[in-house]
Amino acid sequence: MSDGKTIESVMEEVRRFPPSKEFSEKAYIKSMEQYREMYRQSIEDPEGFWGKIASEELHWFSKWTNLHSWDKENAIIKWFEGGKLNVSYNCLDRHLENGRKNKAAIIWQGENEDEVKTYTYQQLHTEVCRFANVLRSLGVKKGDRVSIYLPMIPELAIAMLACARIGAIHSIVFGGFSSESLKDRIADCGSKILITADGNHRGSKFVPLKANADVALEKGTSIEKVIVVNRAGAECPMEPGRDIWWHEEMAKADRSCEPVWCDAEDPLFILYTSGSTGKPKGVVHTTAGYLLGTCITFKYVFDYHENDTYWCTADIGWITGHSYIVYGPLCAGATTLMFEGIPTYPQVDRFWNIIEKFKVNIFYTAPTAIRSLMREGEKWPQSRDLSSLRVLGSVGEPINPEAWMWFHKYVGNERCPIVDTWWQTETGSLMITPLPGAITTKPGSATLPFFGVVPEVVKDDGTKAGVNEGGYLCITRPWPAIMRTVWGQHERFKEIYWTRFPGKYFTGDSARCDEDGYYWIMGRVDDVIKVSGHRIGAAEVESALVSHHAVAEAAIVPVPHPIKGEAIYAFVTLKAGVEETDQLRKELIAHVRREVGPIATPEVIQFCPGMPKTRSGKIMRRILRKVATGTAEELGDTSTLADPGIVDVLIQGSKALHRK
Ligand code: WT7
After folding, report:
1. Which residues of the chain have pLDDT under 50?
2. Among 15, 189, 274, 370, which is disulfide-ready with 145 (CB 3.0 to 4.6 Å)?
3. How do residues 49-63 score in pLDDT, each as one tens digit?
4. Are 213 and 287 contained in the same domain?
């Protein structure tokens, strides 16, 4: 992408879906005029706008002294400086006194249909206090890091809120990541506690979390204690002195625990995410701005009303789960449904079954899930009563208009607005998104910026792109929930996000803005691949491949995939004398799964004698992308290659693979 001046866009979508009158009347934001007016105020008077919302939506032990500051030079961002608050207090305690004590906070649906647990706000409060006391008894203090490697069980939310209660910083590692990935993430943040489970079932597979964790801890780490949840009743060796059972510790723990007064800018959590280069970076989110951002977007974008049942199908191991299963909804006093299983087990109507069973009103999912269920046919959603649904949401990657229309027609029954929400791990909260009672949607567009967000599409040289001209998506000023730093590497934060276009936050995405000011996200421009909406760094998969003894060099590129959106296509050059066999292909795939995790499994491995490189030795991924997608005839100028002959060899190799 960086070889070209602008980015070409080929999409044209003419369908429009305005909000219905009935919906708008009951919504928080009822009209385009109201949206425009509030947006204007959020930009012209951020102090007034955010000050008011922060006083109304959050509970403060003591008020802030300075609403917002931004040291552009050093990329130091602060919101609500001097304010004191506690996230778990905001998500739990205050609801005990405002009439929500016996309201369901979390409804948990286990993988098995008959396994359901409901936690009222009072019950959740009690569990969180007890677990906070467990952590305290193990010596965890404010500012300490706690790593969490759990399946989608209530203990995960309890552990997060317990950390927040005592000011400890959690770092959740998605259960689909390997031991290696877990080890790296523990080492980077130096956590002293690890919370995991014996294991969990996903469809017909068993994920041995504790065994994976044991491998991660083999060679010695900063971890002092491992707290293990007995989820599966699976065999689970416990190391004396290090490993302890969750249920045994909880049985001893007291039910009351005073929340720690945190500063608005104290870190709340670290979440690792992949970028263009090197190891994953620890995205740091802080207390007040993050909580406010997630809470207010949750309320306005999903238009949450008091008796709604809200369901986000993401895993809490990703930012979507942090912000929109736990913090946003609980801060807003909502009922949030948490699902342990997968969409296709025991059969492909699991989502529709759950919506019918709990009368879900707001349903937030990912394009990859929609596409895979769409393939199974509309008879599945049609055979369930989905009439409780009011708002639908999509996140994680661009949603193709075909999937959007299917979602609209067969899930929303042509009644429910779809909010296609664009945001990132780094942004903390929703950024470009429809407001369902105010903004007319266009399938495939994330529409307009949320309050306080100023997007700008710029060209290679940093000047503003024209209407419908593709370019790099930047945000020109900080918003409350923006990440504050990369854990332990502030320079990296500056370099990755603030230097490509000085003074602007660079998202890594390309986009265009149409004649109505609507944004159309076109995809990543860096070496990040979105597989089923999960963010995979090319560099990580490549270094995993190269760590195999047979491999000399590797490069991976995305190829379009009908369900996953993008899949991984790997080019691999073997060491001299190693034979190119299918057996080796399988071995390399297993190796990547072990090193990074199953989500990074390459779809295709093409062996090649060399890579297309510039004379300075840089791999030209642009060429590899075209070879992988079978569009090599549009290669254009290859004269800058050190060895132009390699291109033909690659094309032949790719064709041979396709014939197989
Ligand atoms: C990247 C961020 C933020 C929640 C989940 C992913 C892509 C996300 C959309 C959308 C088009 C989207 C972007 C972004 N993305 N939502 N609605 N339309 N693209 O978080 O793993 O940090 O990934 O996901 O490329 O940069 P993430």
Report:
1. 1-4
2. 189
3. 999 999 999 999 999
4. yes
